[in-house]
Amino acid sequence: MLQVSNLEKHYQSVTAVNGLTFDVNPGEIFALLGPNGAGKSSLVKMLVGFTQADNGSITLTDGDETHDYIPSHLLGYLPEDRGLYPEKSVKQNLAFFATLHGVSKTDFEGRCLHWLEKFNLTDRIDEPLKALSKGNQQKVQLISAILHQPKWVLLDEPFSGLDPINQELVVTFLAELKQQGMTVILSAHQMAMVEKLADRVLLLNQGSAVIYGELEEILLAKQAAVIHVRYADQVDITSLDELKNNYVVETVKSNQLLITLQNNQTLNGLMPLLASLGQVVELKNQAQSLHTIYLNAVAAHNSERSSSEGSSVEISQ
Ligand SMILES: Nc1ncnc2c1ncn2[C@@H]1O[C@H](COP(=O)(O)OP(=O)(O)OP(=O)(O)O)[C@@H](O)[C@H]1O
Predict the structure, then answer these.
(1) Which of 25, 29, 95, 313 gets the highest tally of CB atoms within 10 A of its CB?
(2) What GO MF terms are annotated (predicted)?
(3) What is the pLDDT of residues 15-71, one digit of tens each?
(4) What separation in Å is there between the alpha carbon of 265 and the centre of ligand 1?
(5) pLDDT tens for residues 67-117?
(6) Ligand 1 binding pocket mutation candidate from 15, 32, 33, 42 (most atoms within 8 A of CB)
(7) pTM of the model
(8) Which residue, judged by its Cα, is nearest atom 24 of ligand 1?
(9) Residue 310: what pLDDT?
């Protein structure tokens, strides 16, 4: 288990990571999300021990041992700055990393062929890396990170630079790592991919946690809150004060409403009001994608931050 508590990282005047607390459970796929500059890479570098935290703690428990970062013998790492040997062949590159991690020759041969086939790269095995497209080089780098079958896999933006077909291959790749019992932490900007595979997510903004938890629960909570209603005929919400004054109602079309339930409001309370407006022919939850949830949460957090900064400026004046 990985436990992060009140972690902070400052660079001169910039607070890159601002008091983060979260856990990563063994065997799960954990996604770090957030806009550019949110602090993901700074966090990742502390998790792998490349930089020191200014405050707080990281505790990795592995059997009887504890570590204050993920040690290299337990880790498969795809760093933000990629680096392989362009003049060497695909196989030589992979063999180099496998040897570095003590993988036997027999294990290497089997795993190398297995993953190259999964990524449609089998026939490129003897070509120099520089002859491959950037996306294909990235796939080789991904393979190099996990050939030694580490317990923990940390991937900084594994989808970047890949076309949709190759992004899907990476989703399959990550699902297989999970199946093999590895714990995967990844940072990513591709919400559709994250939605397909993450068990839990941590959304960062300006170094702080904005959303943290089970992906399924996050999606369900948002889904339950927005109700789409379609009537047989057009309706006039101004005729019903109790609805328009107490609920957030948006008229989508003359016969369709979108209602966002606020704290403590329930469908039971809403139903009689909806029925009194006209004949309801369809009532459904409006699913929100992770993409929309992300955008709304970041926008709300930014406006909260700027209004609290604004008020503190007024006080200091
Ligand atoms: N070495 C550094 N020196 C000074 N500031 C830094 C350094 N590294 C990161 N920062 C700043 O810390 C903040 C967080 O950056 P970080 O790279 O961790 O974000 P990120 O979420 O990984 O962004 P991206 O999605 O663009 O990779 C940014 O404001 C960045 O400019």
Answers:
(1) 29
(2) ATP binding
(3) 999 999 999 999 999 999 999 999 999 999 999 999 999 999 999 999 999 999 999
(4) 40
(5) 999 999 999 999 877 778 999 999 999 999 999 899 999 999 999 999 999
(6) 42
(7) 0.83
(8) 36
(9) 60
Ligand 1 center to 32 CA (angstroms) = 14
Name the closest-CA residue to atom 27, ligand 1. 36
Say yes or no: CB of residue 39 within 6 Å of ligand 1: yes
Q: Can you tell me which residue has the tokens 């992300």?
A: 294
**DSSP string computed for the chain:** -EEEEEEEEEETTEEEEEEEEEEE-TT-EEEEE-STTSSHHHHHHHHTTSS--SEEEEEEEETTEEESS--GGGEEEE-SS----TTSBHHHHHHHHHHHTT--HHHHHHHHHHHHHHTT-GGGTTSBGGGS-HHHHHHHHHHHHHTT--SEEEEESTTTT--HHHHHHHHHHHHHHHHTT-EEEEE-S-HHHHHHH-SEEEEEETTEEEEEEEHHHHHHHHHHHEEEEEESS---GGG-HHHHHHSEEEEEETTEEEEE--TT--HHHHHHHHHHHS-EEEEEE----HHHHHHHHHHHHHHHHHHHHHHHHHHH-
Residue 144 has pLDDT above 50, yes or no: yes
Q: Which domains does the chain possess?
A: 2-206 (3.40.50.300), 223-285 (3.30.70)
